[in-house]
Every structure is written in structure tokens, then in C-alpha cells.
Amino acid sequence: MAASGAHPNRRPLLALILLSPVIAEMLSGSTPPIEWLNPIGVLFLIWLYGAGVLVMRETAVRWKTGWPSILLLGAAYGIIEEGLAVKSFFDPNWMDLGSLGWYGRWIDVNWIWAVWLTIFHAVISISVPIFLTEWIWPRIRGQPLTTRRGYVTAIVLLAAATVTINVLLTPYRPSAWHLLGALAAIIFLVWAAWRYADRLWAMLPAKKLPRSPRIYALAGFAFLMGSFLVYGGGPALGVYPIVTVLEGAGLLVGVMLLIRRTSGEPARWTRQRFAFVAGCVGFLIVLAAFLEVAGWRGMGVVAALFVYLFVRLYRRIPIGSPTPVNDNPRASQAAHLEAPNAQTGWESP
């Protein structure tokens, strides 16, 4: 029994805050397990990622928007982290860049890296942790995890983490125009998430596609692996930066069209959506296993734990599939007004 006075959503709240940095940093190998022994480093990771994923989810819930909006808000988070906080979008000597420090660099912006990391954060750092948390606790779907005061506090924490990392931890100093450009892109994405995400998503064709969850698992795996190959391979696979951008765009559009098919009857596509997420994380699991073989100690343990987690979560599907989040809760809300007994996509069964 929960202790008196305990926060009613403390478990999903804690899971959401921790899943984001663990998946995006630890499982991906960006910050391997050995580096998590540094408490200061862990504090900054949880501070930045935890506040970021919480702000983006709570914003979407309060706006009553769905997954297209979450993805755009996730892209905005990617620019907050990589453009404003660590400034890897602009620093030609950023430790993870490699050939992307010169390939696709124009007007002092690492464009290929910027596109890649924006998509990566939108999917892996924001959308996947939200999906998994709401899968484990379906009752929180469409429900705020914080009070209004807590929501404002999360926004302040995200802003404070961004400024602190920018000023104290990353020495590269881009021009004021670069930072203003990043801020303008963030504002645009947030505005688009609020006003147009659902409309643009509904404009995509939803033609009949294979229903097998295996297809979606393979698509999720191929999407993330393809992103690593296309963007990370840069000059080897693209030759010219514009070719790399077009290759990445084709990969993204293909996945969007596949996922769009699951929007028409979301209750019938629960396994497919879960399979797609499992495929995305599955690539990181395989990558972690290879990193363990390469000498990155602890990555194999992390990979095994995530395999166990996804097997456990998948076994829950036949018992009682969680009601999926509708891609357009605003439309569902309007329908609810016309038919009071209808459930919206944000509600739990």
C-alpha cells in the first residue's frame, strides 16, 4: 500500500525521468555504464534528460495532442540539448563527430550531425521513454504526472540545465546568431507541435500495409540502423552532404508512412506499435552487445536487462493490451462531446 502523502504517480514519474538518459546515453553507448559511476555526470544526465522528457510529455498532455506532436516536441528537445546546451551542432571538434566535423559543415553548423541528432532525440530520448512508461502504466495515458506547479518547475529545471551546461561544461562558443537560430528553430517546432502536427499527420496516406508485428519490428530496427549508417557513414555512403540528407529523408518518410497506417484503428495495431518500438531499441541492444565484445565493460549487462524488460512487456499483450494513445486526441475530444459515452484515445481501459 502506498505511503500516506506519497505522490500518486511517483513510480511512472521516476521511470520516465530515468528511462530517457538510460536509453539515450547508456544503452546507446554514448555514456557507457562505467561512466555512470561518476555521480556528477549522472546528475547532469538525469537533470537534462529527465526534465526534458517530462516537459515534452506534460506539454503534449496539457495540449491534448498525440504522438505527431510528441515527435515534434522531441525534435525541439534535440535542438535544446545539442544546439543550446552542449553545442555539438556548431563545435567542429565535438568528441563524437568524426568525419561529420567537416562533412556537411556550412556557415559553422554541422548540418548532417544536427539532422541526425534531432531525429535521434525525438525518437529515442523522448518518444520511446514516454511510450514505454505509458505501456507499463496505462492509467496515466492522457493524465498529467505533475501539478501545474510541478510542470512549471520542470520547465525551469530544463532551462537551468541548458544554461549551466552551456556556460560551465562546454567551452565552445558559437556566435549569438547561431544560438538565436537554434532558439528560433525550437520555437517553430513547439508552435508546429501545438497547431499543425495532427493536421500534417492526417494528410499522410494510410494505405493498407502488412499487419505482421514482425514487419514493424524489422522496420524499427532498420530505421535506427539505417540512420546510423546513412548519417554516421556520411561521406562513405553519401559522397555529397545533400545526398546524405535525401537518403535520411527517404528513410524517415518510409517509416512515417508505415506508422501512419496504425492510426486509423489504433486499438487493432497495439502489437505493431510495440513491435516498432522494440525494433528501435533492439538495434541499440545489438549495438550494446557488440560494444561489450569490443571491450566496453557493462554494455552486455545493460543489453540483457533491456531484453528481459521487453520480453516481460510483450508477454502482457495477450492478457490485456493497453489502449493505445490516439494520434489526434483533440479530434477524439470533439467526438466525445457528440457521443458522451465514447472513450478518447487518451483514456485508460
The separation of the N and C termini measures: 23 Å
What oligomeric state is this?
single chain
Low-confidence stretches: 318-324, 334-349
Helix content: 55-70%
Strands, total number = 2
Give, in spatial order, the strands making up the sheet with the most strands: 1-2
Order of helices and strands: HHHEEHHHHHHHHH
- Biggest β-sheet description: 2 strands, antiparallel
Going by helix content, strand content and strand pairing, the class is mainly alpha
The tally of helices reads 12
Give the overall form: globular
Mean pLDDT: 87
Percent of sequence in beta strands: under 5%
Q: Rg to the nearest angstrom?
A: 20 Å
Indicate how many domains the architecture comprises. Answer: 1
List the helices and strands and how they pair.
Blueprint: H1 10-27, H2 39-63, H3 67-85, E1 105-106, E2 109-110, H4 111-136, H5 148-169, H6 176-195, H7 197-203, H8 213-233, H9 241-260, H10 270-293, H11 299-315, H12 329-338
Antiparallel strand pairs: 1-2
Helix pairs in contact: 1-2, 1-4, 2-3, 2-4, 2-5, 3-4, 3-5, 3-6, 4-8, 8-9, 8-10, 10-11
